[in-house]
Give the backbone structure.
Amino acid sequence: MINGGHVIIYSSDAGADRAFFRDVLGYPHVDAGHGWLIFQLPPAEIAVHPAEASGTHEFYFMCDDVDATVRDLTAKGVEFTQPVTDAGWGLLTRFRLPGGGEVGMYQPRHPRATDL
């Protein structure tokens, strides 16, 4: 039986991004050896969206109050690359990881599978 998932974020500066998850987001972690940190995530869910071609995947953080979370992370030096916008299904923004990648974050308006 499948009992979990493992998200991978590829980075040109994995050390900086690991430090971000550890120090800025404060996620608990284990060291798999040689500083290779694996982080515990909050409850997660997965959705399958239609697309022209398969093979592209995205990761979004979810939060209860996007404006408060943006303020908190901005105070910690996080750079947001998109203002909060109303996507209908939620309030959406994006921020940059220290390694240069971006991830999305949103306050959902849809029912949450994490509440099951």
In short: Strands lie at 29-31, 37-39, 60-62, 80-86, 90-96, 102-108. The mean pLDDT is 93. The longest strand covers residues 80-86. The helical segments are 14-24, 66-75.
